[in-house]
Amino acid sequence: MSQLQEESDRFAYSFLPGTLFVALLWLVKLMEFLTGSELVWLGVLPRKFFGLIGVFMSPLIHSGVPHLLSNSFPLVLLSGLIIFLHSRVAVQVITMCYAGSGLMTWFIGRQSYHVGASGVVYAMVGYLFFLGMIRRDRSALAVSLAILFLYSGFLYGLFPTEERISWEGHLGGVVAGLLAAIVFGSGADLPQPIEAPEPLTPDQQQLQQLHLSTTFAAGSGHMYVKYQVASPATTATYHHRYLLNRTSGMVEAATPGVIPASNVQTRNQKTYAGKTNARQAGGYKAK
Question: What architecture (CATH level 2) is domain 3-187?
Answer without folding.
Answer: Up-down Bundle (1.20)
